Amino acid sequence: MSLSLLSAGLALSAAPARADEPANPPAPPAAPANPPATPAVGGEPAPAPPERHQRHPGYVLADLAEKLGLTADQQKAVGAIIRDSRTQMRGLRADDTLSPEERRAKMREITASTRAAIRAALTPDQQKQFDAMPPPGARPRGPDAN
């Protein structure tokens, strides 16, 4: 009993409570989603883990705004086009009455109409830049492709 009282007294005296310290200290910051590569033996960076196949999100407004220099009005218009396209794609993925071939064909139609609608909202100079950009999800082809 006296041992437990002594240990409790030591614990209280070792950590005096201060009014400016919170009762529950904040949690440490979370680790970054993509931690930097740690050096391996010999100072060389460790190889990155293999990437898993992920579906491409389609057009990303921030990317288009940066690459094409979209105005605020263009960003609103293109953003609405992208949202509409994503809604159509989501509905298409949920439609289990279509065969895989029919679903792919409709996805191509939605992608083509989205590309045409975005292109129509651009200036001629922006259209040239947009035409040079690969469509979302396009994979490199040819001898250099992995």
Shape: globular
Helix content: 40-55%
Number of helices: 5
The low-confidence parts are 35-40, 48-54
Strand runs, count: 0
Short summary of the structure?
The protein is mainly α and 146 residues long.
Describe the protein.
The chain is mainly alpha-helical and 146 residues long. It has a domain at 61-132. 51% of the residues lie in helices and 0% in strands. It has five helices and no strands. The chain is globular. The protein starts with a helix and ends in a 14-residue tail after the last helix. 8% of the residues are buried.
Give descriptors for this structure.
about 50% helix, globular, mainly alpha, about 150 residues
Strand-helix topology:
Layout: H1 2-14, H2 61-68, H3 72-94, H4 100-120, H5 124-132
